[in-house]
Specification:
Layout (H helix, E strand, L loop, with lengths): L1 E3 L4 E4 L6 H8 L5 E3 L4 H4 L5 H11 L8 E6 L2 H13 L13 H10 L5 H8 L11 E4 L23 H10 L1 H7 L3 H11 L2
Parallel strand pairs: 2-4, 4-5
Antiparallel strand pairs: 1-2, 1-3
């Protein structure tokens, strides 16, 4: 979450929606505050819009005074990106993490928010950050001048089998309705483009 107080702008960039790119882009601009770098606020045990409202409350800001933009991403790309990112965790520190895409999607579908790191990267989709009346921009339609890929290419893209496709369809139902994504098209495009 990036805030520009002088221009009363709030930019909500959920994880896996170009958050690293946006942080890099605004890192040297003194007008923008990156609340992910304010440890006690970033560590709040909340997710989605609830966390944003709480940060505004704790920092004595009125969210209604801000023009808000939410960055969203194709739901299949978002889910796969979260899966690939957490594949980096396959080490002794995180032996609990699902190793297959279908196991990962089952965990996302259960939406267990007891692990906020997992939630932010894989379970709390961008629709959970939606604030009524905000401007929504799709990441895939933006031309970011800085593109940071936090997941190395050595982490393979998973094949989506029927079980995975069914879970993705269930997980993304509300997301697709809210942001007008066609899940069948997204899945078809992903399966066609997978290396």
């Amino acid at each position: 979450m990036l805030v520009n107080d002088s221009e009363k702008q709030l930019l909500i960039v959920p994880m896996k929606c170009g958050s690293s790119s946006y942080r890099t882009l605004y890192a040297t601009d003194p007008q923008w505050t990156d609340f992910s770098k304010v440890q006690h606020l970033d560590d709040l045990p909340l997710t989605g819009a609830a966390k944003i409202y709480k940060i505004f409350e704790l920092t004595n800001r009125n969210i209604n005074e801000y023009s808000t933009t939410l960055i969203v991403r194709d739901p299949v790309q978002w889910l796969v990106s979260g899966y690939r990112f957490l594949q980096l965790m396959h080490n002794p520190r995180a032996p609990w993490y699902p190793k297959s895409i279908s196991s990962h999607l089952k965990k996302v579908y259960r939406d267990d928010r007891s692990d906020l790191f997992f939630s932010d990267h894989c379970s709390v989709m961008p629709d959970q950050y939606y604030i009524k009346g905000c401007n929504v921009q799709r990441l895939e339609q933006l031309n970011l001048s800085v593109k940071e890929n936090t997941t190395p290419d050595k982490i393979p893209y998973p094949k989506l089998d029927e079980k995975s496709i069914n879970l993705i369809t269930k997980i993304t139902k509300n997301y697709c309705q809210l942001f007008n994504y066609n899940i069948e098209k997204s899945i078809k495009y992903y399966n066609k483009e997978i290396p």
